[in-house]
Inverse folding.
């Protein structure tokens, strides 16, 4: 077991970002359930919780346009209302999201300095917010305001590190991919459910402007379950990590792929999240990863309790991962595209 402390950023201020009706799925109870799940684990003895710092507005413009930042500030001043069919703001949303964004930036720097992992537990969400907000043609912001993972990745990239973003939320991280679409220095691997919101993340979405091949999308069909997640880890994630040799890893950790989640149909169990954590840990404990920042994203059911806890316990070495079932290859339409992309840009064979 690594003798390290997991630094968690949690702040009660997130409760001020809420739909008064209580009907929106992105409600404050999500973080309460997630934090309580970690408290119930033996790993809690290795956890320190800190609040959010004062917001540094200038940091938002590392990944967002000044027009978008100003727009969110102005909309928040109007009080509670919906920006689009999915995404609401309150009078506190701008400040809350800016504080969590600042925390993500500072966590990246502190993780690099200490080698300790940081877990950001923010609300509202982040990975659907692109440079100008709505990203890659998505119809809404998908509950998100500012992109914490992108800010953490940019902080580490600006310090000369090879940065890998791993997004395993069941919805494609279109905002993060938008921010780094033409940036060859940030590799983004995104596994998600195909044909659901935001409608992006096709296998052939590989980046542009000289960054082709650095954006790797694995859209899994509904009901994929653990076998196809195991295939993703062993045939895509681990081989790319071996070739790329990331010095920093930023994770968009969504737990809405967990079985029974009301918004998705991937039906993974906690074992899928444990396998992903094991892949990261195997490179982290050898000192090859110098900074690790995890940003919570989606999850609207039991994944917040069981998926998150399994992921963190395996990552910190409180539990070993042992694969009990065999991986299963996704449908041919997915593997053929990945085979072409991984072979051309990474020299890898599926």
């Amino acid at each position: 077991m690594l003798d390290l402390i997991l630094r968690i950023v949690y702040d009660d201020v997130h409760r001020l970002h809420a739909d008064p009706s209580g009907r929106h799925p992105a409600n404050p109870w999500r973080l309460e359930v997630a934090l309580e799940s970690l408290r119930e684990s033996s790993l809690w003895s290795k956890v320190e919780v800190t609040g959010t710092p004062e917001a540094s507005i200038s940091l938002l413009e590392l990944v967002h346009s000044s027009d978008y930042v100003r727009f969110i500030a102005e909309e928040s001043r109007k009080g509670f209302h919906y920006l689009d069919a999915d995404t609401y703001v309150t009078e506190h949303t701008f400040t809350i999201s800016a504080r969590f964004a600042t925390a993500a930036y500072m966590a990246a720097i502190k993780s690099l300095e200490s080698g300790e992992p940081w877990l950001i537990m923010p609300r509202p969400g982040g990975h659907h917010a692109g440079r100008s907000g709505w990203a890659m043609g998505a119809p809404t912001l998908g509950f998100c305001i500012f992109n914490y993972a992108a800010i953490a990745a940019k902080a580490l990239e600006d310090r000369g590190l090879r940065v890998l973003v791993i997004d395993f939320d069941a919805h494609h991280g279109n905002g993060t991919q938008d921010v780094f679409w033409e940036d060859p220095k940030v590799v983004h691997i995104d596994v998600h459910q195909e044909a659901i919101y935001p409608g992006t993340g096709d296998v052939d979405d590989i980046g542009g402007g000289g960054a082709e091949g650095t954006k790797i999308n694995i859209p899994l069909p509904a009901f994929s379950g653990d076998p196809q997640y195991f295939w993703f880890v062993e045939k895509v994630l681990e081989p790319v990590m071996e070739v790329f040799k990331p010095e920093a890893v930023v994770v968009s950790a969504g737990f809405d792929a967990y079985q029974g989640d009301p918004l998705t149909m991937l039906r993974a169990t906690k074992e899928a999240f444990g396998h992903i954590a094991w892949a990261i840990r195997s490179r982290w404990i050898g000192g090859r990863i110098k900074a690790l920042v995890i940003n919570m994203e989606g999850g609207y059911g039991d994944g917040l309790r069981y998926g998150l806890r399994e992921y963190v316990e395996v990552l910190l070495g409180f539990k070993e991962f042992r694969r009990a079932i065999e991986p299963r290859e996704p449908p041919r339409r997915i593997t053929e595209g990945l085979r072409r992309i991984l072979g051309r840009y990474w020299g890898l064979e599926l």
DSSP finds ten helices and ten strands in the chain. The CA atoms of residues 129 and 175 lie 4 Å apart. The mean pLDDT is 97. The longest strand covers residues 186-193.
